Amino acid sequence: MKTDTGHPFARILGRAPRCNVRGRITDRFDAFVETFGPPEVLKWKYYKLVFWNFKRQDGAIGFSLLVAFSNNERPKRGLIGVDVSSIDLRDFEAFMSWALDRIGSAMNGEDAPKFLNGADFVIVPA
Questions:
Q1: What is the rounded average pLDDT of the residues 89-94?
Q2: What is residue 123's predicted lDDT score, i.e. its pLDDT?
Q3: Are the CB atoms for 34 and 116 separated by under 8 Å?
Q4: Cα(89)–Cα(117) distance, rounded to whole angstroms?
Q5: What CA–CA distance (Å, rounded) separates 41 from 103?
Q6: Which end of the chain lies in a sparser environment, N or C, as judged by fewer CB atoms within 10 Å?
Q7: What is the pLDDT of residues 32-70, one digit of tens each?
Q8: DSSP characters over 52-111
Q9: Calpha distance 5→101 (Å, rounded)
């Protein structure tokens, strides 16, 4: 079993997502939820943005995983494309490697998924 090596990123809640899209990860929606927890959701008139925000070890906010859906659409059971955005391009590669490693470890059974059956839940502002 693979152990966590203390990657330098942590999830944060309650902040607006970063929108400078620099890449995309394609996997099942539940893989993201089981790895990173239920997403936050922002709703507008015609669509909603499902996202996860992360910060670096030094506290700088810098990364988001983003998926836009129409308001009447639910995440599909198959593969979806999740945009990866960051403020600074220099840290993008490290974050992308970390995110792919976390998803791969959880889905391949190397690490236990942190959030089982969380795909039906979201985090909304109070």
A1: 80
A2: 54
A3: yes
A4: 33
A5: 20
A6: C
A7: 888 888 888 888 888 888 999 988 777 776 789 999 888
A8: EEEEETTS-EEEEEEEEEETT----SSEEEEEEEES-GGGHHHHHHHHHHHHHHHHTTSS
A9: 11
